[in-house]
Design brief:
CATH architecture of one domain: Up-down Bundle
Shape: extended
Radius of gyration: 21 Å
Structural class: mainly alpha
Order of helices and strands: HHHHHHHH
Length: about 170
């Protein structure tokens, strides 16, 4: 049964990724991207990593995808329709991707990677959510708080930079 679920989730991830790249409609492409994110999240659940799976759904499928959809709604679509669909150097990207896939395949066979016990080490000391929380809020509390302050300053800076004066609007 686990193999069937893995196959379905992998298929959803691959089809979502292909739909993201191939789709001519930008909004459909964003929805395909969300499908791919949900498939990856399911794969994380199969690896016994529920915390990372929920982060995948909340951060990527939720926040990033919604941000992309908002940006697409705010852009002038007429300007984008005149642009060329693909970069003329796409063949180099395909060659690089196939070379990378071949390299990973050769390394997997060379080192005889055994995937039968994958994910078991993630839950050795209890819940990985508890482990991430312990590490984040005990060992790395100061950097965590520092990043929160930097992100807050960046948010305020973005609001100040994009704010229009009332004189310009009138």
């Amino acid at each position: 049964m686990a193999e069937l679920i893995f196959f379905v989730l992998s298929l959803a991830t691959i089809v979502g990724a292909l739909g993201t790249v191939i789709s001519k409609n930008a909004y459909a492409s964003a929805l395909w991207m969300i499908t791919s994110f949900i498939g990856v999240s399911g794969l994380f659940v199969m690896l016994n990593a529920p915390f990372i799976a929920m982060l995948q759904i909340i951060v990527y499928a939720g926040a990033i995808a919604v941000l992309i959809l908002f940006v697409m709604m705010l852009m002038d679509r007429r300007v984008l329709e005149d642009k060329e669909r693909f970069n003329p150097q796409y063949l180099w990207a395909i060659a690089f991707g196939l070379g990378l896939l071949a390299d990973i395949t050769v390394l997997a066979f060379k080192f005889r990677i055994n995937l039968s016990h994958i994910g078991e080490n993630l839950t050795l000391n209890g819940s990985n959510t508890k482990m991430v929380g312990d590490i984040l809020f005990k060992r790395y509390l100061f950097p965590f708080e520092l990043i929160a302050i930097v992100l807050l300053v960046a948010l305020v800076g973005a609001i100040v930079l994009t704010k229009k004066d009332k004189k310009e609007v009138e």
